[in-house]
Amino acid sequence: MTREVLLFGHVVGAILMGAGLIGVFLADLRSRQLERLALFAEAIRAIAVFYDGLVVPGALLLLGSGVWIIVAYGFNVLDTPWLAGMVGLFALEFVEGNTVTRRYFTRMRRLSREAVRRGQVTRELVAARAEHLPTFTHFLDLPVYVLIVSLGVVKPDDWTQFIVGGIAALAVAAGLTASLPRLYPWTPPAGPDTS
Asked: Of 7, 112, 142, 183, whose CA is between 20 and 30 Å from 77?
């Protein structure tokens, strides 16, 4: 019975985290299409809601249930490629998500609130929106999540899926980082926002 509860918790955590990452991606994409400052600030706030309301609780549920499953049922992480890949990628995403990505969107929320308070877009907000590293790590979240889920579903006996999937995830993130800012250049009006 305990194993089933842990596995159910793990699946619920994965669903919450995936839903949150999709929400964050869509809210960010929408924010890139908006010129009105008040609407942009609302889209940035939606990113925080998805992140704090779904991604973080899902990740914590995954972490807790995953560690419990590994310890309770004696999985040897290092001798199991699919499990080692899942654990390694989850750890990487957990650290990156709580450092680069979370700090970036927290700063964006603060800067967008300040811009709304002033009634115009600030230089700091424009500079922050143009940063490449947080954009890349943000766009890497979903492909890595898909790779983690695929490793858990397929459970390959070797490292091929991990390597090919990792290269594909990096390529997708690089492609999104290069194309989306060009497709939706964020150039808000320079004057006061009349929203």
From this structure: 142
Residues 90, 148 contacting (CB under 8 angstroms): yes
Q: Using an 8 Å Cβ cutoff, are 131 and 104 in contact?
A: yes
pTM of the model: 0.88
Measured in residues, the chain has a length of 195
What would the 3-class secondary structure string for the chain be?
CHHHHHHHHHHHHHHHHHHHHHHHHHHHHHHHHCCCHHHHHHHHHHHHHHHHHHHHHHHHHHHHHHHHHHHHCCCCHHHCHHHHHHHHHHHHHHHHHHHHHHHHHHHHHHHHHHHHHHCCCCHHHHHHHCCHHHHHHHHHHHHHHHHHHHHHHHCCCCCHHHHHHHHHHHHHHHHHHHHHHHHCCCCCCCCCCCC
Domain assignments of the chain as residue spans, ordered by start: 2-183
Assess contact for 121 and 190: CB atoms under 8 A.
Answer: yes
Residue 87 has pLDDT above 60, yes or no: yes
Residues 56, 137: Cα–Cα separation, whole Å: 16
**pLDDT computed for residue 60 by the predictor:** 95
Tokens found for residue 168: 């594909």
Q: Region 61-77: what's the mean pLDDT?
A: 89
CB 101, CB 137: distance < 8 Å: yes
User: pLDDT tens-digit profile of 133-170?
Assistant: 998 999 999 999 999 999 999 999 999 999 999 999 99
